[in-house]
């Protein structure tokens, strides 16, 4: 992308809001993927 296109992503309020929400949801997903779930046999999942 051109430099002006990146700058536009941060100056356009609607696009910036959507981009930050998307990044936030991805961060939450990545964090939650490492939280152990009770009742799940980790050894059985590791064997897969």
Automatic annotation (TrEMBL):
Entries under Gene3D superfamilies matching the protein: SecY subunit domain
SUPFAM superfamilies: Preprotein translocase SecY subunit
Entries under InterPro entries matching the protein: SecY_dom_sf
This protein's name: Preprotein translocase subunit SecY
Lineage of origin: unclassified sequences, metagenomes, ecological metagenomes
